Each structure stands twice: as structure tokens, then as C-alpha cells.
Amino acid sequence: MLKIKALSQELLKTETELIVVSLFNDVIPIKGDAGYIDWLLNGQISNLIKKKKVFGNFKESVLLSSCNKIPSEKILLVGFGKASHLTSPKLSYIFSAIMDIIHRIKIKDFGISVCIKGISDSEYSRIAGDMIEGILKGFGEIPLSKCDYTVKITEEEKSRFLILNRIIRNFVENFKEKHNTVLEV
User: Fold this and answer.
1) Which of 12, 56, 58, 154 has the fewest CB atoms within 10 Å, i.e. the most exposed one?
2) Tens digit of pLDDT for each residue in 21-31?
3) What CA–CA distance (Å, rounded) separates 32 from 42?
4) What share of the chain is helix, strand, coil (3-state, %, to 5)?
5) CATH architecture of 2-184
6) Which of 137, 63, 153, 60 is nearest to 99 (CA)?
7) Omega of the bond prior to 29 within 30 degrees of 0, cis?
8) Looking at residue 184, what is its pLDDT?
């Protein structure tokens, strides 16, 4: 079974096995959740970048320990490439690829967030839709009858939370019909 939960809270306050955080190779200094995690981990991400071990390239992934600095045990840092080059097909693809990574490392409960500030509601809707579409596309490749997954999608801004919740419900209904599977929202 697949459970998708929309939570009105910060990603970094979400209790899960793992959180997924984006890293862009053209956003310096590191911003958003990745920047805050870097600060909490005493510059661990920045040091990896300086040592040329992490670049933020498209689909690059690094698994980090949270060192008990957040309620999640692990952090999956995923490269999204250049922020200016993100198209709908690329976003859908990267989120689908993230589900494959989640499945391969045997994580059953994880958190993720749209977490983009300073964009219009219509752009937010497009990006959130691409994210949900990619997540469900990725789970469409996984035999859901054999194990349970819980995806916690967070959004702390109230108006955006309502948008996100509507988008999730629309995509989940279509997914349930297409894959004849049980989803809980």
C-alpha cells in the first residue's frame, strides 16, 4: 500500500526515516533546506562541494546521516542541476528517479517538499504537479503489493498547502484508477 500525506509543516521538522532535499549546481551559497542542513551539519555539504565530491549535477545523489540534528535519521541530497534549466519533463523524471533510489535503499517512510519560495501560485501548481506526477510514476514501477510506503509531502505556507492538497488528491485518484492499487491520502 502507498500512503501519501500532505503535512502543513516544515520538512525539517518531519519525523521520517529519510528526507529528500534538492541541491542545485548553480545556487551558491546553498539555500533552502539544503542550506539549513549544511549549517546544522557544520558545513558538511559545503565541504563536499569544496572537495569536488558533490556538485549538484542532475540526478546526482548523496546519502547523509542527520547526526540527530533533525527528526529524520537520513538525508538524501539529490542534484537537480541548474535551477534555470528545470522543465516539467525533467522535474517529473527526477522525482520518478528519486522513488527508484528510495526503493533500492529500502526506505519505507520519507518526507519531501516542493519548498520553492518567491514564485506565483500557478508556477507552484505546475512544479507541485510535476513532483506528484514523478513520484507516482516512480511508484508505478514498484510492486506496491509487497510492501508499504509512506510519503510525507510538506508545505508550511497555508495557501500553498491547500493547493498542494488539491493537486495530490487529483493525481492520486487518477493513479488509483490506472494501477488498480490502494492509496491513502
Assistant:
1) 58
2) 999 998 888 99
3) 16
4) 45, 20, 35
5) 3-Layer(aba) Sandwich (3.40)
6) 137
7) yes
8) 53
Domain spans of the chain, in order of start: 2-184
Amino acid at 110: F
Say what the pTM is. 0.90
Question: What does the block give as the cell for 28?
Answer: 551558491
Q: Which three cell numbers stand for residue 133?
A: 506526477
Question: What is the rounded distance in angstroms from the CA atom of residue 125 to the CA atom of residue 128?
Answer: 5
Collapsing DSSP to helix, strand or coil, 4 comes out as strand
Q: How buried is residue 136: exposed, middle or buried, by Cβ count under 10 Å (0-12/13-18/19+)?
A: buried
Distance CA(14)–CA(45), nearest Å, equals 20
CA dist., res. 80 & res. 58, Å (int): 4
Residue 84 burial (10 A CB sphere; 0-12, 13-18, 19+): exposed
Residue 64, beta-bridge partner list:
75
Residue 30 near residue 54, CB atoms below 8 Å: no
